[in-house]
Amino acid sequence: MSTGVLDPADFRQVLGHHPTGVALISSVTAEGTPVGMIVGTFTSVSLDPPLVGFLPTRDSASFAEIAKVGKFTVNILAHDQEPLCRALSRPAATKFDGVEWSPSGNGSPLLPGVVGSIDCTLESTTPAGDHYFVTGRVESLAIHRPVAPLLFFQGGFGGFVPGSFVAPSDGIVAGSIPIVQRIRNRMQELAHAAGGEVTAYAKVADHAVAVATVAAPGVPPSTVLGSKLPLTPPFGEVFLVGAPEAEVEQWLASAGGSTDDEVLSVSRERLAHACRHGWTGSYAGDTRDRLLFPALNEYGVDSVTPARQREVRQMLHAAVQELRPVPLEAQTLYHGASLVAPIRNAHGRCELMLRLCRIPPTPGADIAAWGLELRRLAETATENR
Ligand SMILES: Cc1cc2nc3c(=O)[nH]c(=O)nc-3n(C[C@H](O)[C@H](O)[C@H](O)COP(=O)(O)O)c2cc1C
């Protein structure tokens, strides 16, 4: 770029490398007509007093109407609302044609399916070159749908995926399919015999991805293929079977610096059990099946937000008491047992795991027997690689 007269194309190109969110600023005229404009310049301005801002072009017909009304609603668009965004980027006169909306708290158009909305009164309008810098005083605000927002970057639309939820290679999942295919019948037999569900998970970066699942008759399948579980303590110990201590330390550290010591000690115990017995499990409750797994299934991977990730971690940490591999009493009935076993590769490392869950209340002696069965099945898969 030259240091003399600024080339507008350069300005646009360089600024286009900075991503923005996408919001609709909406209002209703005195005649009851909806008006609004899509902006990429919406931003938080001040907490005390609560102010937000955006930058309309000086010649925006829509902003002229919004300024007359003196109040507006900010609609934060979700990752799957690109078509709506495009419709609302049309010229002012037709942009609301065919667009569904309901009145927000201050009467402005509120779009269904938005991530959140912020009702404002117009606070200030300051000229800023060929734009205005507009601030609005926040009167009320709400999250409607806590999913990933729509983003605008280099002239294109996209979504947001938190770093640790990114699966770098579908190849890893594809490579595990033949291995699982070979033991599928035995997975089915085990699911039938135990009256539960058997699922195979492949390790993809720091996640376990469900690649195959079978269930006993009358047990409705609960695992969505392709759903991802974060391999962070106290979850994912089987993938550390055969790993050097440095990797175990790394896995423990991924729980976060402020993690309760109990989460770390239970994680170590589970790993030690898996190394010693070839399987490990939890048999003191079904929090994982009741809360965690449905929560993860519900969220498609492209709409997992960092907030959701934190919630999942908290759920895992809260369930830690259930996850401790306590000594099994042969006659005692255990509810909500969930057993896992590593399938190892030629180097002894675990890249796939089997999980048996959703079995009915079962005596300790039988749980230990299922653990052994699961281990045998995993060993067969290892031998057949
Ligand atoms: C992703 C995206 C971001 C935009 N950001 C702004 C913005 O910050 N300010 C602005 O004036 N127009 C912005 N526009 C253009 C307006 O949405 C709109 O098309 C233009 O202002 C027309 O205004 P009118 O409704 O007054 O005719 C953006 C459009 C898109 C698609």
Number of structural domains: 2
Largest sheet: number of strands, sense, barrel closure? 7 strands, antiparallel
Radius of gyration: 27 Å
CATH architecture of the largest domain: 2-Layer Sandwich
How would the global form be characterised?
Answer: elongated
Q: Residue ranges: pLDDT <50 for 5 or more in a row?
A: 164-168
Strand content: 25-35%
Name the hetero compounds present: flavin mononucleotide
Strand order of the largest sheet: 3-2-6-9-10-5-4
CATH class of the largest domain: Alpha Beta
The N- to C-terminal Cα distance equals 56 Å
Which percent range fits the helix content?
A: 25-40%
Order of helices and strands: HEEEEEHEHEEEEEEHEEEHHEHHHEEEEH
At CATH level 3, the topology of the largest domain is Beta-Lactamase
Q: Give the helix/strand class.
A: alpha+beta
Find the CATH superfamily of the largest domain. GAF domain
Let me know the number of strands.
Answer: 20
Count of alpha and pi helical runs = 10
Q: Mean pLDDT, as a whole number?
A: 88
Description of the structure:
With 385 residues, the protein is an alpha+beta fold. It has two domains: 8-160, Pnp Oxidase, Chain A, CATH 2.30.110; 170-383, 2-Layer Sandwich (Beta-Lactamase), CATH 3.30.450. The chain is 32% helix and 28% strand. The strands form five sheets. The protein has a seven-stranded antiparallel β-sheet, covered by helices on one side. A hairpin with a 4-residue loop joins β4 (43-46) and β5 (51-54). α4 runs antiparallel to α10. It is elongated, with a radius of gyration of 27 Å. Residues 164-168 have low confidence and may be disordered. Bound molecules: flavin mononucleotide. Residues 22, 37-41, 55-57, 60-62, 89, 91-92, 152 line the site of flavin mononucleotide.
